[in-house]
Amino acid sequence: MKTISTLLTSLVFTSSVFAADIRSSASLTVKTEEKQNIVVVVDGNRFDLGTNSIMISDLDACAHDVVVYQEKKDNPYNYFQKAYDVIFNSSIELKPRTNLQIHIDDCGIITMNEIRSRTPKMGDSWSNHGSFDNGYSEHAAFSSAMNYNEFNRVIWAIGKEGSDLNRMKSAEQIIKTNFLTVDEVKQMMQLFCTDDYKLEIARTAYVKTVDPENFFQLSNLLHSENSKGEFARCLKEQ
Question: Quick one: 152 and 228 in the same domain?
Answer without folding.
Answer: yes
